[in-house]
Amino acid sequence: MYTFSTKINQEFRNVDINLRHETQILTEEFGINVLYVRNNKFVKCKCFDDLNKTGDSKCPYCHGSGYFNSIQMIPAIESSNSPYSSTNSIQKLKIGVTDQKNEVYYIQQQYNPKERDFILKVTWDKDKNPVDVVKVLELINIWDTRGDNGRTELFACLTNNRTDLMNSFNNTVKSLPKIAINELLKGGKYIWPANIQTDSHK
Ligand SMILES: [Zn+2]
To answer: Which of 86, 93, 174, 189 has the maximum number of C-beta atoms within 10 A of its C-beta?
Structure first.
């Protein structure tokens, strides 16, 4: 009996010639749909403080990042066990940065996850609309997994459980307009807040 994570671990230790194909199959088999929140560093929020180069930590629009976010529905594989827990990358983490569980999400290469982005684990209704945010997970460390040809095939993302941002993100998800939901379900991206137009919204 092995868990998903050990299976995945074995898959990637014995790197196959067509890892990208394997990754696709694994994601279809074990993946869940999450909302991926990308920190957009091109469009500043109205709360952005040019002097301190930060946003207002209480800002309901950008959650204190100082920038607008894009949101996208993507498949990810969740795992509570990190196969990388003995690597140097983990040891470089500052004490207190991560919680005890070291929850890891595996994301396919085309989504290009970055540190400080967020994964929202949400519940979905029968019409595939997001209902409630169950977890807010900040990406704090990312490893790429490469195939034999050196091509990046999959990212393992170590996350930090940000319970302090639950309400804020819950409000955001619940206030997403229908046009945003439709865009997400089509695999597209949506930039919020919805009432502010940006050139990058396309
Ligand atoms: Zn803001």
So the answer is: 189
Residue 132, phi then psi, degrees to nearest 5: -125, 145
Cα–Cα distance measured from residue 134 to residue 181, given in angstroms and rounded to the nearest whole number: 18
Closest CA to 110 of 84, 143, 142, 74: 74
Ligand 1 center to residue 136 CA distance, Å? 18
Q: What is the pLDDT of residue 101?
A: 61
Give distance in angstroms: CA of 177 to centre of ligand 1. 19
How far does the centroid of ligand 1 lie from the alpha carbon of residue 169, in Å?
13
Summarize pLDDT for 74-109 with one digit per residue, the tens: 999 988 655 444 444 444 444 444 445 668 999 999
H-run or E-run covering 133: strand 130-146
Distance in angstroms (rounded) separating the CA atoms of residues 60 and 62: 6
pLDDT digits (tens, 9 = 90+) for 45-73: 889 998 988 889 888 777 787 888 889 99
**What's this model's pTM, rounded to 2 decimal places?**
0.72
